[in-house]
Amino acid sequence: MGFFISKSLDQNMKKQQEFMLMNSRLQLERQILMQNQMRERQVAMQIAWSREFLKYYGAFFGIAAAGCIVGAMKKRKPQIFLPIVPLSIVLVYQLDLGYGTLATRMKAEAETILENESERLALPYGPPTFESIEKARRAQSTFFIEK
C-alpha cells in the first residue's frame, strides 16, 4: 500500500517539476520579449527626438545661413561664412540620425564590438552577484534587521 502512495507522490512531484519548468520558461520568454519591446520603444523615442530636434535646428540653421550670406555680401568678407561649416556638420549628423542610415551603421559597429572587443564591455568587479545585491539590500533595508 505504501508503495502505491509513494509511486503516486513521485508521479505528482514529477508533473509538478515539469509544470514549474514550463512555467519558468514561459516567464523567461515573456521577460525577454518585454525587454526587447522596451528597447525598441526607447530607440524609437530617440529617433523621434532627433527628428523633432532637426525641425528646430533646421530653422535655426536656415536663419543663421541666410544671415551669414547677407552679412558676407554686405561687408564683402568671406570669413562671415565660417560659422556655417560647424553648423552644417551638426545639421548633417541630425539628418543622418533621423532619416538616414546612422542607426544601421551604429548597430553594425555595436555588433562588431560585441564580437571582437568583448573585453571592453566588462563591468568593474564583474557582473553583479546575488551576494553583492543582497549585501547592498541589507545595507539599505530599514524593514528587517538580520543578524
Automatic annotation (TrEMBL):
InterPro entries on file: Plg-R(KT) (IPR019319)
TM spans (from-to): 54-74, 80-99
Keyword Transmembrane helix assigned: yes
Keywords: Membrane, Receptor, Transmembrane, Transmembrane helix
Name recorded for this polypeptide: Plasminogen receptor (KT)
Native source organism of the sequence: Huso huso
